[in-house]
Inverse folding.
């Protein structure tokens, strides 16, 4: 028997009992006549005591030499501590050691195994198994486990069946590049790793499974913008015989359950906002509605004066920043520099200070009088003490820039509180989006999303105007889930592929299996997928998904611990019928 108890378990009520403990040496304090060792495992820390009077000299010597992170087993008696430590649950007791058994010695770890470690990100990732011994990482993994168990419990109770789908498949278009796997048995052919199980879950509906879910890895070979991982986890779900309303209600239920069970937070019915409104009011299809600062469009009240910049702009739009009228000239200049950074890309920013006495002071006083500025304040909802920040230019860019400014200011003003949760549904997404570089339309979601009833005809005349039965679940400014009601008949699916630029042959070779299945009684169906990594990090009140992944990749898509990706040897290449030549 390696242990009778864990290191976090013993309390004053155990005083007098004989115990066997195993764990890692966290710290040794040697006072000469007495030595203490903190012994640690997943459950906590317990203090071991060795002294010359009560333990043998030999044992004392052995204890003194224990290095950090050595794995030991001890046998001893639980005794009352002379000086108690109220900061840890085992702080009332210590274990007087009678036997010490060294199970495995450890090299000196490259960083301290403490909550506040001296190890930087790179070194911690290289020795991630040591990092996982630290409380912050360990607790995040346990937290993630709790969330995924609650997901499984809830969905299973609602009649969902967990079905696994294959990883070695053919491309599923979710808008990213595929990771490819060469086939040894089929020379010259490749599998793609799933960007999601999309087509399989639809086939499960054709198969009559009715309510499916899976907590599943997805693979997307994207440029790794901050906080993306090439492999990530989805809570993937699909239901048959449902309309959009059924899906929204079911997964609102799941989200409420998680907020309640995990955070103890009860939220009312989730608001719903159309995509168009989200863009108009927040410049963003995943608005953070924990705070106000809604956009006010100022074209009507700010154009047709003598200010050329505004007159030539497609959109003039502002936000009222609460309490920011006090900003000094220097602070405002810094804000203007911030919006002009290439990452944001604005050409400049006009501002209006709404003074406490009801007057206005703006950077464009030459062109606008007090009455004009009062109208700006009305449109943006500004009150005395606020600062109105105004950007102008092409609609999409200007909205994106003002959205970035809104989020930045909210962060600076402490309005993005991690213990507040403001979910909402964004609905009525466009079916297609225009790629401004190529002039082609792409599915905004994926090509299996159904247009709203009666809108199919518009595909021909005004593709950008077609709305989809597609929805996103947004939490605190993050898209945590997205899905749609699917096309379930062959003709509509074929029309979609045609509009996306597939020839009938291409559509058949890539998606023939799905179109075939649609001919055998495919039920109406729809679904959603949640990003589990992101959901967990938001519920955990932290910024990056990497903190909740046991073995994450870095920004170059590398696992620095196992050193992957890596070269492979010639024999392996030969087996796969591959020859590597480098283009550059
Ligand atoms: N497959 C979609 C995605 O990965 C989700 C869905 O439509 O259910 O975003």
């Amino acid at each position: 028997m390696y242990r009778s108890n864990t290191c976090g378990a013993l309390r004053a009520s155990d005083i007098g009992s004989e115990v066997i403990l195993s764990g890692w040496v966290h710290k040794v304090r040697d006072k000469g006549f007495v030595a203490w060792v903190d012994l640690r495992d997943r459950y906590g820390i317990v203090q071991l005591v060795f002294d010359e009077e009560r333990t043998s000299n030999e044992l004392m010597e052995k204890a003194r030499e224990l290095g950090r992170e050595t794995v030991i087993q001890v046998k001893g008696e639980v005794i009352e501590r002379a000086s108690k430590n109220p900061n840890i649950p085992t702080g009332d007791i210590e274990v007087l050691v009678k036997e010490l058994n060294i199970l495995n010695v450890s090299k000196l770890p490259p960083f301290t195994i403490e909550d506040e470690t001296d190890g930087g990100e790179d070194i911690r990732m290289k020795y991630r198994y040591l990092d996982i011994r630290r409380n912050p990482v360990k607790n995040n993994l346990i937290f993630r486990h709790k969330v995924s168990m609650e997901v499984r419990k809830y969905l299973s109770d609602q009649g969902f069946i967990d079905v696994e789908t294959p990883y070695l498949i053919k491309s599923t278009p979710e808008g990213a590049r595929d990771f490819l796997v060469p086939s040894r048995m089929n020379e010259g052919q490749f599998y793609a790793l799933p960007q999601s199980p999309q087509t399989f879950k639809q086939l499960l509906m054709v198969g009559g499974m009715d309510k499916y879910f899976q907590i599943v890895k997805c693979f997307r070979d994207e440029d790794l913008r901050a906080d993306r991982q090439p492999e990530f986890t989805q809570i993937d779900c699909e239901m048959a015989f449902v309309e959009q309303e059924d899906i929204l209600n079911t997964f609102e239920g799941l989200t409420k359950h998680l907020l309640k069970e995990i955070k103890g937070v009860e939220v009312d019915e989730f608001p719903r906002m159309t995509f168009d409104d989200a863009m108009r009011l927040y410049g963003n299809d995943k608005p953070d509605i924990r705070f106000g600062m809604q956009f006010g469009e100022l074209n009507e009240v700010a154009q047709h004066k003598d200010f050329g910049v505004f007159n030539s702009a497609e959109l003039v739009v502002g936000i009222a920043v609460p309490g920011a009228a006090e900003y000094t000239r220097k602070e405002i200049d810094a804000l203007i520099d911030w919006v002009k950074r290439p990452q944001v890309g604005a050409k400049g920013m006009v501002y209006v200070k709404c003074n406490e006495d009801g007057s206005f002071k703006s950077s464009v006083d030459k062109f606008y009088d007090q009455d004009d500025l009062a109208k700006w304040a009305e449109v943006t909802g500004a009150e005395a003490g606020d600062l109105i920040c105004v950007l102008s230019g092409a609609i999409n860019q200007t909205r994106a820039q003002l959205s970035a400014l809104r989020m930045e200011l909210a962060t600076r003003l402490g309005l993005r509180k991690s213990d507040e949760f403001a979910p909402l549904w964004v609905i009525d997404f466009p079916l297609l989006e225009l790629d401004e570089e190529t002039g082609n339309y792409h599915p905004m979601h994926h090509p299996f999303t159904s247009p709203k009833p009666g809108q199919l005809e518009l595909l021909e005349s005004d593709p950008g105007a077609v709305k989809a039965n597609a929805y996103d679940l947004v939490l605190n400014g993050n898209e945590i889930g997205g899905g749609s009601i699917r096309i379930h008949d062959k003709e509509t699916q074929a029309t979609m592929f045609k509009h996306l630029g597939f020839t009938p042959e291409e559509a058949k070779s890539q998606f023939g299996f799905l179109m075939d299945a649609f001919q055998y009684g495919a039920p109406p169906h729809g679904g959603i997928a949640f990003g589990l990594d992101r959901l967990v990090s938001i519920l955990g009140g932290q910024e990056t998904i990497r903190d909740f992944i046991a073995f994450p990749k870095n920004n170059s898509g590398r696992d620095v611990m196992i050193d992957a990706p890596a070269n492979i040897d010639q024999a392996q290449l030969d087996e796969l019928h591959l020859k590597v030549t480098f283009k550059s």
User: Anything to note?
Assistant: The chain has a mean pLDDT of 95. The first strand starts at residue 18 and ends at 30. The CA atoms of residues 144 and 346 lie 39 Å apart.
